[in-house]
Structures are given as structure tokens and as C-alpha cells.
Amino acid sequence: MKKIRRSIIAAVTIAACSSMLPAEGFAGNGCGGASWYALRSKTASGERMNPAILTAAHRSLAFGTKVKVTNRNNGRTVVVRINDRGPFIRGRVIDLSRAAAQNIGMVSSGTAKVCYQVVS
Phi-psi region for residue 105, left (φ > 0), alpha (ψ -120 to 50) or beta? Predict the structure, then answer.
């Protein structure tokens, strides 16, 4: 009986602790603010930033990772490739290229609340 009780307590503790992790704890999925940028400088991956292609910056996802980004205000989605690091502003989870921002309808506002998930 004590073994079962310990197992149950351990399972409940693990479940409770994992639910307290921040949304950014697992970088493959998350929600937060997004912004867009259209520079023509070099990205952290070494390629030149092209605002006309569907790319994005993320703090920790591997370069080349494909991510589906959904605008929470209108439900529009876009799949982008991570090729840069950022954003470096609190509350923001991803920076999109201008083309990606245009696809999800956030160019005029400059920022939007989004959710993202790794697709490959």
C-alpha cells in the first residue's frame, strides 16, 4: 500500500511541476507576442535577410526549423523557416519577415499575439 501511495504522490508531483513550467519551457510550441522586421543585413545563420521570403527569428530553435505561426486575432497561419535569433524584447516569442507578417495580417499593426508550433 505504501508503494502505491508513493507512486501516486510522485506522479501527482511531476504533473504539478510540469504544469508550472513557462510556455517558453519547451521551445517547440508557445504563445506570445510577435513583431516583424525587414532589414537586409546578415542573419545569425549567416544568410542575408530577405523580407520577401517566409523566415523568422527565434531565441533557441535550430536554424532551418519550420514553424507554423497562427495569428490569434484572426486565425490566419503561415509556415516560416527559422534563420535568425531574436526577438530580444520581453513578451515577444518570434520575429517574422515582412512577407510572413503580411500573410497573417499583422503588417499594419506591427505586432500581434501569436501561437507557434514546430512542424519539421
Answer: left
The residue ranges of every structural domain in the chain are 27-116
Residue whose C-alpha is closest to residue 113's, from 94, 97, 100, 89? 94
Binned average pLDDT, 10 residues per bin, the chain of 120 residues: 51 42 58 94 95 96 97 97 96 96 96 96
Task: Using the Cα atoms of residue 114, residue 119, residue 82 and residue 99 in order, give the sign of their dihedral.
Answer: negative
pTM (2 d.p.): 0.76
C-alpha 93: how far from its chain's center? 5
The topology under which CATH files domain 27-116 is Barwin-like endoglucanases (2.40.40)
Instruction: Answer yes or no: are the C-beta atoms of 18 and 78 closer than 8 Å.
Output: no
* Residue with cell string 545569425: 44
